[in-house]
Design brief:
single chain, alpha+beta, seven-stranded mixed beta sheet, Aminopeptidase, globular
């Protein structure tokens, strides 16, 4: 499947938040509905503007997106219809090569994401008991392994 990575504009935010919500519902089974409703306006109104955003598009629209700030991948979400089709890897590679990302924070309870990053060459370097909002969702701090 062919995807083009492009910058994201504010006009894309409604589609981006739709991808975010579909992705979270498919992968973040530890979140309750009230948690999703808590994070959704934060993502839309604060977090998207705080990162350098890129998305993977095809003729049908946005398949996934990545946001990087200070060499840290702050968000990487894939529409469930495109999971397993290389979109996440393509966005991750772009974030590393072009946006110079070398770190990522991942919800510990999102085992698929943790496994994805481990498989892609990241290692766990730390853990926080609470997420950045102070909620009890532990975060694993990961860093790209140094290549010899």
């Amino acid at each position: 499947m062919e995807f083009t990575i492009t910058p994201v504009s504010k006009a894309d935010y409604s589609e981006i938040i739709t991808v975010w919500e579909k992705s979270v519902r498919a992968t973040h089974h530890f979140l309750q509905e009230e948690d999703i409703q808590y994070y959704k306006p934060l993502i839309l109104n604060t977090y998207l503007d705080a990162v350098e955003l890129r998305c993977a598009r095809n003729t049908e629209g946005i398949a996934g997106f990545v946001g990087v700030a200070e060499n840290n991948i702050e968000m990487l979400f894939i529409d469930p219809a495109y999971r397993g089709k290389g979109v996440g890897k393509q966005l991750l590679d772009y974030a590393i090569r072009t946006l110079h990302a070398g770190k990522v924070d991942v919800n510990e309870q999102n085992e698929q994401a943790v496994g994805f990053y481990l498989h892609c060459g990241f290692e766990i370097i730390g853990r926080s008991e609470l997420d950045p909002s102070g909620k009890p969702f532990p975060i694993l701090h990961m860093q790209l392994r140094q290549r010899d």
